[in-house]
Please model this.
Amino acid sequence: MIEYQPELDLRTGAIIGMEALVRWRHPTKGLLGPGKFIPLAEESGEITQIGRWVLSEACERTAELNRTLPPGQCPLIVSVNVSSAQLTPAFVGQVRAVLDRSGLAPAQLRLEITESILLADFDRVRDLLQELKRLGILIAIDDFGTGFSSLSYLHQLPIDVVKIDQSFVRGLDGDDRRLAIVKGICILSRAIGAEPTAE
Model:
């Protein structure tokens, strides 16, 4: 199943988007988060099928929601996580087909990738992201700061959003060092033309 986590604009409090989060309703263990089954899905190769399903469902649901919004309200953006196994040359065509079928505008889809995916095969991933960007899709770096961050790659990528990992944001009150890191990531993000988002 997919749960949708709302994304808020802190200046206005308005819901501006949502992240599609895959969950597994296990018959005996209940609702399981991705940490419990995604590694197995990646190992078995099922992650590509799961990823295609999540992308399709999230785009269709968001397109439906956007059609019901009152006139003048900005359409919602949906964020979908992408695994390294999905990032093949065929992926761009798959995304285009999902957008055509669902009716979701490309600018209302944000694909999220982690730093580890970037660092594994930078040139190939960069080229794919640039193709996706040419379609009008938004690109986000997820869990920024938790991997082996290399700041040198940021200016080479078509990044729209830098997602600050919750490990930096949780417990910010009274933690001057953590607050300084978050402020630094915000400044860095805006310097490269990306919007910082806190998990």
User: Anything to note?
Assistant: The CA atoms of residues 56 and 98 lie 6 Å apart.
